[in-house]
Specification:
45% of the residues lie in helices and 11% in strands.
Length: 456
């Protein structure tokens, strides 16, 4: 009897220890200096400077010259977007870009929100900071940082920002929004040393939010933004009040996840799978494995030799447009591969798509943006942050045409505090840009749930 009790106490104590250790795990970040040379003595310049996007006449003339000198290639007969960006349709996009697209008008649209730059760990970090025009009496605006991915930019959030900072529903929360460019993307300076990964970006964005005076804030991300904001929550879980995602790569599969893959189709209730889960996951080989292989070739290139392919894209605006816009086709809806125009203007305007391309072109950021894959994926999949759960309230918007479908069961090992899991009516990988209204509604739903919990 005594032995049984002793064993029970030991086992119970071990379980308690493991649970508490898991709860107490916090990701560690090391401050860096990401420009050439040694870290200077003295304190870092914390000046915040207003910034505006500008383009000279010479830059535009160079762009047009390069477009005019492109060498067209005929598309294969009846190939649609199955071989990549259809060359015949590309000629139409390029013609619009060269003759009708008004970049200066788009610059005015970009500059409608306040932009700033500030140096953090040597890097000139670019960000938008949009404050609400009106906050209901007795309330305060809720700080929210939103982080983009590749091949997107801060511009992805332009349809979403006003819905959060100026909601029309009087019962909605009012947000104060910060949208930074990941270093190496857009108008944030590129790291000049090896090793700048998602944890480094998360550390820099924490410093940015502290510099702006925020003691606590919410975070939202998709694509790389999911990993950067996840790392932010892991670094300082007491500062990130809530984490909202629309993309999440499943953590290392435990036994329950593996069993769900093998048996979930036949015993869905055993794993809490919904009809939607079954529809999106099975047949597993076709819908998960094969589809992932079809869309991940770029990742292997960028995670191994980004500078080689990137050099060609940095010189050719047409090549850059094809490389980026192909993702806005297939990643929005895989069925768009079967359309001669890739379905691009079914969800986006050419003006918005080309504005995102122009941000990459005028900033010359395609190579450093691709290097981010090398710094993250190239270091292996067994990084410290992959083993640490996120003990921050988490909301997940599951868009049906997302590249990687993640049922709630697969989220829980990494994000044990899932507050809201929302199957969305429509939308794909670039959901903030494609479906800003749906995204705003889900961010509201999540933040309200977290705020109510904190009041109890």
């Amino acid at each position: 009897m005594f032995t049984a009790v002793l064993v029970g106490v030991v086992v119970g104590g071990l379980i308690y220890y493991l649970v508490q250790r898991s709860k107490n795990q916090v990701l560690k970040a090391v401050d860096g200096w990401w420009v050439t040379g040694a870290t200077p003595d003295g304190e870092e310049d914390t000046t915040i400077r207003p910034f505006e996007v500008t383009t000279s006449a010479e830059e535009l003339e160079d762009l047009y010259r390069r477009i005019d000198q492109t060498r067209p290639v005929a598309a294969l007969e009846d190939s649609q977007f199955e071989y990549g960006f259809n060359s015949n349709y590309l000629e139409k996009v390029v013609s619009y870009w060269r003759n009708d697209f008004d970049w200066r008008r788009q610059i005015d649209k970009i500059n409608q929100y306040p932009h700033f730059k500030t140096k953090i760990e040597g890097i000139d970090v670019h960000y938008l900071h949009v404050k609400p025009k009106k906050v209901p009496e007795g309330t305060t605006a809720i700080p929210l940082i939103m982080v983009h991915g590749w091949p997107g930019s801060f511009y992805e959030f332009y349809g979403l920002i006003p819905l959060l900072t100026e909601p029309t529903n009087p019962d909605d929360l009012v947000f104060e929004v910060v949208c930074p460019s990941i270093p190496g993307y857009g108008f944030s300076e590129a790291p000049q040393k090896k090793g700048f990964d998602s944890v480094c970006a998360a550390n820099i964005f924490h410093k940015l939010m502290k510099r702006l005076g925020f003691q606590q804030f919410y975070a939202h991300g998709g694509d790389w933004g999911f990993l950067v904001t996840t790392n932010m929550a892991q670094l300082e879980p007491k500062i990130v009040k809530g984490l909202h995602l629309n993309f999440a790569a499943a953590s290392k599969p435990g036994l329950r996840v593996v069993l769900s893959i093998m048996l979930g189709r036949h015993f869905p209730k055993l794993f809490g799978f919904t009809d939607l889960d079954i529809q999106n996951l099975y047949p597993f080989m076709d819908k998960v494995v094969v589809e992932s292989l079809k869309e991940s070739g770029y990742m292997h290139i960028q995670a191994t030799k980004p500078d080689t392919a990137g050099r060609g894209l940095n010189d050719s605006p047409v090549g850059l447009a094809a490389y980026i816009l192909e993702k806005f086709s297939t990643w929005t809806n895989r069925d768009f591969r079967n359309l001669e125009d890739g379905g691009l203007t079914r969800k986006f305007s050419l003006d918005d798509l080309l504005t995102n391309v122009m941000i990459y072109w005028v900033s010359g950021c395609i190579i450093p943006s691709m290097r981010f894959y090398k710094e993250n994926v190239g270091k292996g999949l067994d990084r410290p942050h992959t083993k640490i759960p996120v003990h921050v309230p988490t909301g997940f918007a599951s868009f049906p045409n997302e590249l990687m479908y993640t049922p709630e069961l697969w989220l829980k090992p990494k994000y044990p505090k899932v507050v809201t899991y929302s199957p969305m009516a429509r939308g794909g990988h670039f959901a903030a840009m494609e479906e800003p209204q749906l995204m705003a509604e889900d961010i509201q739903k999540f933040a309200k749930a977290v705020e109510k919990k904190k009041l109890k």
